[in-house]
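Q: What would this chain look like folded?
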Amino acid sequence: MDITKNIKPSILLFSLGFLGIASIVPLIPQLLSLQSAELPMSVEMIQVISVAQSSILLLLMIWVGSIFSKKVSLSAPVIFALARSENVFNQLKPQILPAVVGGIAGGIFILLFLGTLSSYLPPEFISAGEKLVPPWYTKMLYGGITEELLMRWGLMSFFVWASYRITQKVGSEIRSYNYVIAIFLSALIFGLGHLPVAFALSSEVTAPLVAYIILGNATFGFIAGYLYWKRGLECAIAAHMIAHITMIIGASFA
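A: My prediction, written as structure tokens:
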């Protein structure tokens, strides 16, 4: 067995995910400025620790994904084709249209959902959100790549396997409901994961705010999870990026 063939895709995935981690470093001082309490250490040290913690989590999720994705027939076909020096476009082509449709649909939904709930959200949250806008490259790299590696490649792959082992006999064909359960769980965690930043932006926690953060993000998580299942990890990544592009364009018109 050529070990390098198994390691190379993980190295590629980590390298892409680390770009997203690096892209959030300039945002850390802005987030820290929202806190009234005195910082326990320098901003630079907090940035270093944040990068280290995020990198360890990314490594863990890539390792988890590399193990369990194979067990449940999930894949990153473009990355694996690139690692094997094969024709990447053959793997990318079936992903393009679903990614565009899913990304635009997800972006429009989040914009409409925000528009529906905006009058019910705390003014402090709206004001802080307008001031703390991540640059486009952070949305593309961290949102599009790193979050998909964590949520879909890592967590969703594991949840499919766990659901299968709990509900079916080993060796039987994996049924679709296992993927649906995994999509739901990973999407819910994806939504919940955005709450800390939302709470940092607003001292007032309201039901509409929690609903907007969880449901808005989880709904796109359903889309990304389905695309990962049916088309591959890169399709979910591309859709996530396109959703952000859609929201950036929509916000500019608003």
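The first helix runs from residue 3 to 23.
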